[in-house]
Amino acid sequence: MNGNHTGRMPREATVTPFDPPIPILRRPLPAAEDDNPSKGPFVLAFQDEQSWISAWHSCELKIVERCEAGARMGCSINATKKCKPPWWLNMLPFLKKPNHQQSQNACEEQEMQSCLEVARSKCFSYAKETCEGGLSDIRVICSEPFMNTKQHRYRRSKRSSKEEAVRLADERGPSKQSKE
Questions:
Q1: What angle do CA 171, 172, 176 make, to 5 degrees?
Q2: Domains identified in the chain, total number
Q3: Region annotation Disordered: residue ranges (predicted)?
């Protein structure tokens, strides 16, 4: 046995690195008097309008990506089923046309394109409905009212008043204070 060996493992072998934590999207605010008291003394609110909009777009993007991935699999299976030759054509190979494989590939491509177009529009509407259900009636900490847009609906919190925004700005430091 080597005299220099102490039986210890290097630090890199025993320490597990973790990814840095994801920043918190919403922070707790004291609940207003008209809020449901059974849900607790705090409600969650987005820090500002931009963080809320980015959360909405991220939600829609992830849902559309996953929906389209599933639609591609389903469309591929349906295109293969629709464009396969009749069962008896494999039994009688002399009846096959020389360009049979090319015509089958063209049929599958056309079926895939038409199926994906329909699925893509349904995925967008599904993502919009899903994100709207969870993100449309939320609270945002802000010092001024939102501008209305056609894309999104919002509701300001009873507690997200100018005083609340100034208080939060004071907590963050002098560089982020809002003008009165």
A1: 125
A2: 1
A3: 1-33, 153-180
Number of C-beta neighbours around residue 73 at 10 A: 9
Q: What is the span of the domain harbouring residue 90? A: 42-176
Contact 160, 141 (CB under 8 A): yes
- Is residue 112, in this structure, part of any structural domain at all? yes
Reported as type and span, the H/E element at residue 26 is: strand 26-30
For the record, the structure tokens of 72 come out as 């591609």
Cα–Cα dist 31/158, whole Å: 9
Q: Is 1 exposed, middle or buried (0-12, 13-18, 19+ CB in 10 A)?
A: exposed
In a domain, 32, yes or no: no
Identify the three-state secondary structure at position 140: strand
Q: Looking at residue 131, what DSSP letter applies?
A: H
Predicted structure pTM score: 0.59
Considering only 21-25, 83-87, 113-117, which range has the smallest mean pLDDT? Answer: 21-25
